[in-house]
User: Which sequence fits this backbone?
């Protein structure tokens, strides 16, 4: 079923983050899918009595066929089999009219002194945000091969030579032809608990809250640096849930995150976006056409087709081919082989190998026949949460942070290998990987378009 895309704007500061550290609470710069999932559940249970809320669902639900919570979160077939439940993905800041918004890959870098996307007209000097995946992979392969190198690849700004760093903003968006970043203007509050007997501040009960503000700034030329209402863009995969009931519940969400009883997390509106049937700029690239391109080693793609799986594959392999030609001009044979693809994490992923958490995603783990992981850029994350229904903390998981990148090489060019991988990669995009997928974890994207930005733009 088609994904449900929606957006919402903040009417009050929002606190959505990890449990407190000492007396300090801090919000993420995005809204995790698990937070949205809990808000939808609260809408569905809004009219329930205390006894109804205490009943475990779907195990002890008296009528799952009519129960709104079961119809959305625990869909069942007529024979009682459980069907795929909806998956709530993370929501990121985005300006009105954005084409898409993604977390930055772990390979994204920008100048430490003059960071930010390049602009034709800007009040401050910028040296661009670039992706270093292809060049890091080539440098890694060159170091392993033992070839004498006529150069030394370093992560320095190509304009001024300053060191490169990860962009401060955790995500980027697409608006018309621009890449852009959006940064909510965080606010900080101090709160204290009052002793009910003495009516004075309770000792040791002073709290500091760092929250996502109601306004944000983007670096789009049209914005001119002026703040705008904080708006976040999100996606839900409905699975086999009652899609109409899910959309209705989404549109009725008015509070998100923690401390809602203190006025935090109020939403101004939730807007369900409608798909644009004429939004495709060109025809999708078919499997047969991609098989021909792999066989010939020449890749062509249509620009601005980032939503099409085939065009993303072709565009990434064209970027690899251009980089390969550069090294051949230097007398080096790097990035050789058949063809390449990446597996990019759009949300945190929790995978295991041998029963233990792992950062590595191998071809065997992902069931990718004929592929080999030759480079990875990933960071660990430790995530938990709070379950309002249980009144208990969620189990904590050690996993891979959103933005992790895994580069695979395929030496086989035969049509059967291409077809098997084409089908499997599409399945990975639709189903995700690892555990906790119903809370938005494990969402993947094949050949993110940002990997073509090896030069600042």
Assistant:
């Amino acid at each position: 079923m088609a994904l449900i895309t929606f957006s919402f704007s903040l009417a009050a500061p929002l606190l959505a983050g990890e449990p407190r550290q000492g007396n300090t609470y801090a919000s993420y710069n995005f809204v995790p899918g698990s937070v949205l999932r809990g808000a939808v559940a609260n809408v569905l249970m809004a009219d329930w009595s205390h006894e109804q809320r205490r009943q475990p669902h779907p195990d002890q639900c008296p009528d799952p066929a009519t129960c709104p919570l079961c119809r959305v979160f625990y869909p069942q077939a007529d024979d009682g089999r459980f069907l795929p439940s909806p998956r709530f993905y993370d929501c990121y800041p985005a300006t009105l009219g954005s084409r898409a918004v993604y977390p930055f890959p772990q390979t994204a870098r920008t100048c430490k002194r003059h960071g930010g996307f390049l602009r034709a007209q800007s009040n401050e000097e910028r040296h661009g945000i670039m992706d270093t995946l292809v060049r890091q992979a080539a440098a890694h392969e060159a170091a392993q091969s033992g070839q004498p190198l006529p150069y030394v690849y370093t992560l320095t700004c190509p304009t001024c030579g300053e060191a490169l760093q990860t962009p401060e903003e955790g995500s980027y968006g697409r608006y018309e032809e621009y890449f852009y970043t959006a940064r909510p203007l965080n606010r900080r509050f101090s709160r204290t608990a009052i002793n009910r007997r003495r009516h004075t501040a309770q000792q040791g009960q002073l709290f500091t809250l760092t929250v996502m503000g109601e306004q944000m700034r983007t670096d789009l030329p049209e914005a001119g640096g002026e703040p705008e209402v904080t708006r976040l863009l999100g996606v839900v995969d409905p699975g086999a849930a009652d899609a109409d009931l899910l959309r209705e519940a989404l549109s009725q969400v008015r509070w998100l995150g923690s401390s809602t009883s203190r006025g935090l997390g109020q939403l101004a509106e939730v807007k369900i976006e409608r798909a644009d049937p004429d939004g495709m700029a060109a025809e999708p690239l078919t499997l047969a056409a991609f098989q021909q391109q792999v066989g010939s080693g020449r890749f062509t793609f249509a620009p601005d087709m980032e939503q099409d799986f085939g065009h993303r594959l072709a565009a990434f392999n064209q970027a690899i081919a251009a980089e390969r030609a550069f090294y051949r001009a230097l007398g080096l044979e790097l990035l050789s082989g058949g063809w390449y693809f990446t597996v990019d994490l759009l949300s945190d992923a929790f995978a295991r190998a041998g029963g233990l958490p792992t950062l590595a995603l191998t071809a065997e783990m992902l069931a990718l026949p004929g592929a080999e992981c030759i480079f990875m850029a990933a960071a660990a994350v430790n995530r938990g949460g709070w379950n309002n229904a249980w009144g208990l903390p969620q189990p904590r998981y050690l996993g891979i942070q959103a933005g992790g990148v895994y580069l695979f090489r395929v030496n086989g060019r035969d049509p059967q290998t291409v077809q098997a991988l084409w089908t499997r990669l599409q399945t990975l995009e639709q189903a995700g990987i690892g555990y906790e997928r119903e809370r938005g974890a494990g969402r993947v994207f094949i050949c993110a378009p940002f990997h073509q930005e090896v030069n600042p733009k």
The chain is about 20% helix and 25% strand.
